[in-house]
């Protein structure tokens, strides 16, 4: 039987690429920011969280609103999605969060982005520790680099098939 994969952030470049490549292999439920249906989380085998935002403004020039937007997109929304999935899921569910190699090491003008992705990394680890639900973090490098999106899409498929994988770094220049 085909797994049902709920793709949060389905309108993102990565969400669209995954859906296009695997639409015939999985039962895909697409979620975007404007149509979050929490009830759909209960019926999915896998929650694929592609939600996120990138802010490449340095610490000195980041406004409070830009900071709050990053926290919302990269920590709060993934937390609420994961919490709803955990509360409605069977014990054999699987959450796959898309992080970043920046969760391991930051760079100029990426401190806030890196901090939010590091928080997502630890939240993903905690899901695996606190529950019976499988939790995987995929940390791609820069999507602007050739092959990174395709490699990440393939990694998602691999992790759906191998839910014991806890973390994967893709094309990472740390």
Description:
With 174 residues, the chain is an alpha/beta fold. It is built from four helices and six strands. Helix 1 crosses helix 4 and helix 2 (64-88) runs parallel beside helix 3. The mean pLDDT is 87.
Q: Quick gist of this model?
A:
By secondary structure, the protein is of the alpha/beta class. The protein is built from 4 helices and 6 strands.
Chart the SSEs and their pairings:
Layout lengths: L3 E5 L4 H10 L4 E5 L14 E4 L14 H25 L5 E5 L12 H20 L3 E7 L7 H14 L5 E4 L4
Parallel strand pairs: 1-2, 1-3, 3-4, 4-5, 5-6
Helix pairs in contact: 1-4, 2-3
The stretches of 5 or more residues where confidence is low (pLDDT under 50) are none
Q: What's the domain count?
A: 1
Beta-strand residue fraction: 15-25%
CATH class, named Alpha Beta
The chain-level structural class is: alpha/beta
Largest sheet features: 6 strands, parallel
The percent range for helix content is: 25-40%
Adjacency order of strands in the biggest sheet: 2-1-3-4-5-6
CATH homologous superfamily caption: NAD(P)-binding Rossmann-like Domain
Keyword list:
174 residues, 6 strands, alpha/beta, Rossmann fold
């Amino acid at each position: 039987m085909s797994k049902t994969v709920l793709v949060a952030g389905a309108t993102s470049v990565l969400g669209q690429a995954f859906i296009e490549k695997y639409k015939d292999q999985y039962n895909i439920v697409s979620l975007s920011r404007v149509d979050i249906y929490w009830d759909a989380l209960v019926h999915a085998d896998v929650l694929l969280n592609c939600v996120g935002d990138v802010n490449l403004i340095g610490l000195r020039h980041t406004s409070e609103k830009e900071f709050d937007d990053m926290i919302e997109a990269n920590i709060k929304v993934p937390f609420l999605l994961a919490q709803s999935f955990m509360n409605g899921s069977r014990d054999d569910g699987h959450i796959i969060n898309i992080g970043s190699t920046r969760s391991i090491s930051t760079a100029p003008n990426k401190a806030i982005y890196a901090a939010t992705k590091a928080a997502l990394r630890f939240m993903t680890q905690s899901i695996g520790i606190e529950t019976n639900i499988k939790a995987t973090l995929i940390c791609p490098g820069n999507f602007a680099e050739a092959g990174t999106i395709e490699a990440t899409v393939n990694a998602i498929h691999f992790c759906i098939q191998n839910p014991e994988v806890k973390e994967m770094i893709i094309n990472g220049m740390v």
